[in-house]
Structure formats: C-alpha cells, structure tokens
Write a structure and sequence with these properties.
The chain has 146 residues and is mainly β. It has one helix and nine strands, in the order E-E-E-E-E-E-E-H-E-E. The strands form three sheets. It has a four-stranded mixed beta sheet.
C-alpha cells in the first residue's frame, strides 16, 4: 500500500511548532446552527497551498474533562452511558463539560463524584487531546489514585 504523500515516513518526527505555518485562512463564516451545547459554522477557507474549500463545516462545542480513576485494587473506574449517536451503551471514563471559568481538574473530579461516587486523593492533569478534523472541543484527562 502506498503511503499518502502528505504523511511523514515512520522514522520522521513532525515538529508541532512548524504546524502554525500550515494554518487555514478563514475567508467567510456563517452560523448554521446554534444550540446550548453545539454550534455549526459553515466556512469558506483557504489552505496554505492556496486551494479553497467553500463549504467546510466547523462544529463548535464546549470542552470536556475526563477522569482516569484507579481503585485501591488497581481497577479502572468506568461508567456505562447510553449514547444516542450510536444508539447503544458505551463504557467510558467519567466525564463531563467544563463550565466557563472552571478548572478542568475540578470539573473531572466533580464528574467522577457525580457519576460514580468516587473521590479522594488530589488528582493531577495528565494531558489533553483534541477531536481531529472539524471539532473544536477537547477532552482533558486527569488521574485519581496511586
């Protein structure tokens, strides 16, 4: 299978500092949907190579915080949630929306207590990730326990 031309070779490392120069220029933006936890924008954008996309859909939503919690027996605490998007149950980390001005670790700790009843030691921030492509929200991860 041929490697796509835009992908680095496995041994190559991509420097994130060089990514900013690859930003897209927004030429026009129009709000299509505005709900409490979701906004959808249609944008006309110009790529670094000059190519234009007339109908890029940008989904904006709040950031979420998730908690990785291990019990004293080193069991991972998960919650079972119904997710309408895939019409079924999902086994996932306790998580929820970070309220405006709220510390992500506090939000993750709050969600852990609300969804599971667990709490205790001081959690710490372990990282964050972004939904690739069209999303604007990020998931913030924290740990609980030793």
């Amino acid at each position: 299978m041929a490697r796509p031309s835009g992908c680095p070779k496995k041994k190559d490392k991509v420097k994130l500092s060089s990514m900013k120069s690859r930003s897209w220029k927004v030429l026009h933006s129009q709000l299509l949907l505005d709900r409490r936890y979701l906004q959808v924008m249609e944008q006309k954008v110009e790529l670094p190579n000059g190519e234009k996309i007339d109908d890029f859909a940008l989904v904006q939503s709040p950031s979420w915080a998730a908690m990785v919690c291990l019990t004293a027996d080193r069991d991972l605490v998960l919650v079972e949630q119904y997710r309408h998007g895939h019409e079924g149950l999902s086994l996932e980390l306790p998580a929820g929306i970070v309220d405006p001005g709220e510390d992500p670790v506090q939000a993750a700790t709050r969600e852990l207590a609300e969804e599971t009843g667990y709490g205790g030691e001081s959690p710490s921030t372990k990282g964050r990730n972004f939904v690739p492509g069209f999303g604007t929200h990020e998931t913030k991860s924290s740990t609980e326990g030793k």
